[in-house]
Specification:
The chain is mostly beta strands. It is built from six helices and 31 strands. The longest helix is centred in the first third of the chain and has 10 residues. The chain is globular, with a radius of gyration of 22 Å. It binds copper (II) ion (CU). The site of copper (II) ion (CU) has 6 residues, from loops.
């Protein structure tokens, strides 16, 4: 991204302030009209009283390690990142694109009609700058998030929480704290990808191959004073972990040397909603002196698991209940896997001394499935035999840096066809030396086996498949459409690790 001097920063902040003239132009899904899927779209609304919550995709300036950085933003009606809904409230949102680039936002883990999923299918193209798109669907409750699915805008923080309360949580006397994690780089994501694939030429080839996915528009955000590109062959020692050397790890947009301090009541009760919004990094959540109870993963309730350290893969969420001691300040850390680097926030009772913390600590091990194997859904899928079982191999390597699903690389993929009403099971077989957090759009699945050992695991939307390991997921095909199915490591996805699950009868 471009680094501006102080003067131009001020200028830009004023320029993207909220005093801009209201946008009048609305876009609707033109391609959808042509393909006869209009019935799944929200009706257009004209009365102001009937308007949805306004969500603005824009830009903002962050200071990271003493340097200014231009990043994207997704700001809701209360001026804060993202959207928060009460129990039973519909997801009625008007997304206004003021980012100066084309964009489209995916409601990660939610189950909208496919035309509202925010994936850039030909039928649902990205929004032009200045356009507004309306969404209207019944959300599912829990801790979710939203991110751009256009190009690599996610790496430039086009991400935000999406929290849907449930009645029980509303009744509880608990302080809610959202903790969103990011990996941050002063380089542009295109430059990061070029350093991974080994050449600028490879990037332009990717651009050509991934028409519709890549956002050429972000190219002008390349940092002018960025460090020299990492040379191929000079990768970090952990070739199978942490592909990208990041400049910082952020917790609610701040580093651990300048952390967010959340005021809590003495002896208070907290619900911590942790979202791993990092593009290419996984963490261990470390509660230090505190004990937490995992009560939900990816928004879905699980039977309680207590502990102090919990792994969280890319795109996953963890809901933790914590009972605080009578006094003190309590860091909640996120330690990068296989690394001493860390970020976090501090929960502090009034008058407690805030500790100064280094953003490096003892090295953390790699993230694993030690939590996954202990999880059990509070509301598992109804028991029934599978109608369709597919084995899907996860392939690829660091050299050349390219990744595949079922032997194919996006966009040259054969859709996995499912029929409405089927119970589907996918056996994900990881042939590679890297772990892949696999995400299915539009469906919640249950983890039903790990390495061939069946169990009734968590219901969730993103599952980590360890190197050389197998994970089986089951879901009911109850949401007809075209759905992306992919690795949530942004650089794996951008170099091919994405395919389509398509319902029989959906024309494409
Ligand atoms: Cu991957």
């Amino acid at each position: 991204m471009t680094i501006f001097d102080r003067e131009s920063l001020r200028h830009r902040v004023i320029a993207d302030g909220s005093t801009m003239t209201p946008l009048s132009r609305r876009t609707f899904l033109v391609g959808a009209l042509a393909t006869g899927i209009l019935s799944t779209l929200p009706a257009s609304r004209s009365a102001a009283s009937d308007a949805g919550k306004r969500l603005v995709a824009g830009t903002r300036t962050l200071e990271v390690n003493g340097r200014a950085a231009r990043v994207y933003s997704l700001i809701g009606p209360d001026g804060r990142p993202g959207i928060r809904l009460r129990a039973h409230e519909r997801f009625r949102v008007d997304l206004a694109n003021q980012s100066s680039k084309q964009t489209l936002v995916h409601w990660h883990g939610q189950l909208p009609p496919w035309t509202q999923d925010g994936f850039p299918w030909p039928e649902t193209p990205p929004l032009a700058n200045g356009a507004v798109q309306s969404y209207d669907y019944a959300p599912i409750s829990g801790t979710y998030w939203m991110h751009s699915h256009v190009g690599m805008q996610e790496q430039v923080l086009m991400t935000a929480p999406l929290i849907v309360e449930d009645e029980m949580a509303q009744r509880e006397d608990r302080q809610e704290i959202v903790l969103m994690l990011h990996d941050f780089t002063f380089r542009s994501p295109e430059e990061v990808l070029a350093s991974l694939t080994g050449s600028a030429h490879a990037v332009s080839a990717q651009h050509a191959a991934m028409t519709g996915m890549m956002d050429m528009g972000t190219m002008d955000m390349v940092g002018r004073d960025a460090p020299v590109m990492q040379m191929p062959g000079a990768e970090a020692p952990h070739m199978d972990l942490n592909d990208v050397e990041f400049d910082a790890f952020l917790a609610n947009d701040r580093t651990l040397t300048d952390p967010e301090v959340v005021r809590v009541e003495r002896g208070g009760r907290v619900r911590l909603r942790i979202i791993n919004g990092a593009s290419s990094s996984q963490f261990w959540v470390d509660l230090g002196a505190l004990t937490g109870k995992v009560v939900a993963v990816d928004g879905h309730s699980v039977r309680t698991v207590a502990g102090r350290r919990f792994p969280i893969a890319m795109a996953q969420r963890l809901d933790l209940l914590i009972e605080l001691p009578r006094s003190g300040a309590f860091p909640v850390l996120a330690q990068l896997e296989g690394s001493p680097r860390r970020t976090g926030i501090i929960l502090a009772a009034r008058d407690s001394r805030i500790p100064r913390l280094s953003d490096r600590g003892p090295p953390a091990p790699r993230v694993d499935l030690s939590l996954e194997t202990r999880l059990a859904a509070a509301e598992p899928l109804r028991a029934r035999p599978a109608d369709l079982v597919r084995t899907i191999s996860l392939g690829g390597s660091m050299k050349p840096y390219a990744w595949s699903m079922d032997g194919e690389m996006w966009p040259h993929v054969t859709p996995l066809i499912v029929k409405q009403g089927q119970r589907v099971e996918f056996e994900l077989v990881n042939q590679t030396m890297m772990a892949h957090p696999i995400h299915l759009h539009g469906h919640s699945f249950q983890v039903v086996a790990i390495d061939g050992r069946p169990f009734q695991g968590a219901v969730r939307d993103t599952v980590l498949v360890m190197p050389r390991a197998r994970v089986r997921i089951a879901f009911d095909a109850d949401n007809p459409g075209r759905w992306a199915f992919h690795c949530h490591n942004l650089y794996h996805m951008q170099t091919g690790m994405l395919t389509e699950v398509r319902y029989d009868g959906i024309a494409a």
